[in-house]
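Translate sequence into structure tokens.
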Amino acid sequence: MNKSVLITGSTSGIGLGIAEVFAKNGYKIMLHGLEKNGAELASEIGKKYQVKTGYSNANLLDSKAITQLVEDTIIQLGSIDVLINNAGIQYVSPIEDFPNEMYEKIIAINMNAAFYAGKAAWKHMKEQKFGRIINISSVHGIRASEFKLAYVTAKHGVVGMTKVMALEGAPYNITSNAICPGYVKTPLVENQIKDQAKAHHLSEEEVIDKIMLKKQAVKEFIPIETIAEMALLLATDHATTITGTTFTLDGGWSAQ
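Result follows.
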């Protein structure tokens, strides 16, 4: 295995879990994120799985920085075969109180960054006649919830972007798919549980059951490993005909 993968937002949570699984399977990894120990994490993963790794803290609000992130991946790892657009942020507020700057930031990081990264990787993937673009959207890419206007908008946009990239990439063996998880117990979600418990005067267990997992038929958080294994399948050579679709790993939420 000599293929390389760039994973945005991969120094914690879902992205780090994906990085671990890909490294375990022999991929060269470009980690990206804002954690102060990002370079250390990349080094540790490289040593643990005996693969080449790199690290960047590129600002995803800057299109030029995103283009450079892709170029740095190619320089450090030799190619970019798989792009996983995972980075994202969240903000919860009623529409009338939603800060404009937060709306713009969420659209920029959750949606626009996926376009800039995909565009930057595109020419390289076309030349090598191989590319796998995997967008980590959300069940909110196909369903809506109150008070999450920017997040829902961005994630719906990513699903649409995924389809267009699939159509344009098909002649060049570039596939594009979206993974749409339900709630995953990341540090971000754990903080939300604590905040919701205080706001609603509930226990953390009640928040999980009555608020977070209310819409899921299976009352369990989606394991990070499940998302990572799905991404790994989509990245393979034999996944050529799997393109332009969404994979909802949501415990039955969207079945309703």
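Note: Residues 100-128 form the longest helix (29 residues).
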